[in-house]
Amino acid sequence: MSSVIPNRPRIAVIGTGYLGTTQAVCLAALGFAVTAMDVDQDKISSLRSGLLPFYEPGLPELLQETLRTGRLQFSTEFERSADADVIFLCVGTPQSADSSAADLHFLDAAIAEIAPHLAHKCLVVGKSTVPIGTANRLRTLLQSAAPAGPLVELAWNPEFLREGHAIADTLRPDRLVFGVTSEWSLRVLRGCFAQPIAAGTPVIATDLATAELVKAAANSFLATKISYINAMAEVCEATGADVNLLAEALSYDSRIGGGFLKPGLGFGGGCLPKDIRAFAHRAAELGVGHAVVFLREVDAINQRRRQRTVDLITEMACGDLQEVKIAVLGAAFKPDSDDIRDAPALDVARMLHQAGARVTVYDPRAMPNARKSYPELSYAPTLASAVAGAEVVALLTEWEVFRQADPAVLGALVERRNIVDGRHALDAAAYQAAGWDYRALGTPAGPPARLLEPVMPEPARLSQPVVPEPALASAIEPV
Ligand code: UGA
């Protein structure tokens, strides 16, 4: 990896959480000189020594590699933004403690920290997910507080990366959205992302409000798709239909597509749940709450899946959870992450614990975080010790190690072979063959629906292959 490529903008990144660290490391990997800043001294010290304070596949290696080149630096001194041509704002916008609105105080604080040092022409680029109208407000704030005034421009470049895929999503995004107020800002942003653009990533240049809205709309759409299939799972449960086959059949319609159509325990994490609530809140403030009122139902469907999972586990425990030993497999909100924010798995574990069950949790990466937030639960150091003596096993985050587990080996460890697959991650037939009572959300109990009835004797005319008339064959060939 070469050192800084000359004549490139110098970059600062404010905030070294998940988004900021990924952004800083990836921009340094693309050849820019990057200084990432944060108020948290511990985090900065850890990053300086090449240690990531969260789990993301591939990122520690890239962090260490870019640190070695000297292109990437970490600092708590915000005056270093005085040397930057482009400053990315990557601070969190969590849900407010007292409402569903987004809490913007980290963003306001970041502007207050950097503005006094901006006495030169530069571009400040917001990446955080914000309520529509935030960018315009920050622009006014920035230009009135910065010594360079209107020479400091603001742009919005929403981030679409997924945890667990952060590097690929940053270096090869599906699209780049640049909310700008001038040709100059657009040119500078194009320069920062020249490599992905050259590799074919489409660029959509917009005004500030549209850029903010793209992010809220994208996350809302994804959440809606998940809740849609989970609503269908509820209907399947009432009819004996199979939601997996339904999702598969829907996915082949190219207008629908198969992405984000995986039924199960539903969505969690630090983004989708809070973003749909903040969007609904902002829309109501803008007088268009009715336009996104469906997002409340998206949220409600999602929450119902958690209760339904508890109900299914209770059914397997013959209606009473008191003192029932339950192994919960998974704590993170999704696999390949140690993030437990609004994690469906831990919410279900908490509900089971409150109902009197003896819950033991195992997760390959998220145990330290889970222990801190849910000290009332028990934790096992390995998958085998988590399931030992369990009366019900509940798979709630689909880590690969759980998919790969041998049902016969697990079966020898448990007290009773009851399993609830909250993520449709396991081979139902293999578990049933190993003597497990396998249950999943939205699929009928018993043998998989794909299994057909045994073939009965039938008239010959029904078993002959149907050969098209030669004259008609060309007419019915696919075009
Ligand atoms: C989400 C978006 O996918 C990113 O594009 C966005 O940048 C990010 O939020 C953000 O706003 O920062 P992320 O929260 O990392 O990314 O996770 P996802 O992969 O979207 O998964 C979210 C949740 O939905 C997980 O709990 C997952 O288990 C669940 N999910 C996902 C389903 O239940 N079914 C699916 O088909 C897909």
What does this structure look like?
There is one protein chain. This protein is an alpha/beta fold and 479 residues long. It has helices at 18-29, 41-48, 59-69, 105-114, 134-145, 166-171, 183-192, 194-198, 208-239, 243-251, 272-285, 294-316, 344-354, 367-373, 383-387, 400-404, 407-413, 428-433, 460-463, 470-476; strands at 11-14, 34-37, 72-75, 86-89, 122-126, 152-156, 176-179, 203-206, 325-329, 358-362, 378-379, 392-395, 418-421, 437-440. It has two domains: 11-206, NAD(P)-binding Rossmann-like Domain (Rossmann fold), CATH 3.40.50; 207-451, NAD(P)-binding Rossmann-like Domain (Rossmann fold), CATH 3.40.50. It has a six-stranded parallel beta sheet with strand order 3-2-1-4-5-6, with helices on both faces. Helix 9 packs across helix 11. The longest helix is centred in the middle third of the chain and has 32 residues, at 208-239. The protein is globular. It starts with 10 loop residues before the first strand and ends with a helix. The structure holds uridine-5'-diphosphate-glucuronic acid.
